[in-house]
Amino acid sequence: MLKGLIGKKIGMTQIFDEQGRAKVVTLVEAGPCYVTHIRLPETDGYSAVQLGFGETKPKHLTGGQLGHLKRNNLPPLRFLREIRVKNPDVKPGDQVTVTSFAVGEHVDVVGTSKGKGFMGGVRRYHFKGGPKTHGQSNRMRSPGSSGSTTTPGRVLKGKRRPGHMGDDQVTSQNLQVLLVDAERNIIGLNGAVPGPKGGLVVIRETRKQ
Fold it and tell me: Can you give the pTM of this predicted structure?
């Protein structure tokens, strides 16, 4: 069975286990997803399954996107994502639901983190900042010197500086599945999932056990 889904983050809550301990849970409305295409090593150079999620109106898609979906008699789908699979056991047109995961399994969740805009070094990288006394007037949250002397005589690449923060692809690894609600297409994951409420996420089988 294909271990992969596209979903929408709903929010966070908590549930209690048999011992009465509270577990932090992120709820994701995952699926139903449709298999829209199969990638094979013979034709594409790698093996993967393309999934579609989120039915929409045909006017919101391009002609190429509609033709790609109509080839397998699928409805207009807003989001298409690929999940690497060594031996795909599905075919185009199949439907994938939350029942492909079971309580107790571990998954990786890929999402886009919240965009924070332009941020300084203190907020972006938790810099300590400069001294709060001894005559400084406007350098308390300054990152300080960026370069060095004659050697190397330049600012090295990757230097932590103020800049755009967030809106990056983030993967939360090895989250345990605590809840599977097939009737409402909801899956509950133990821990935090990247992105805001309503953000798109991809759930796949974990790579690190």
Answer: 0.87
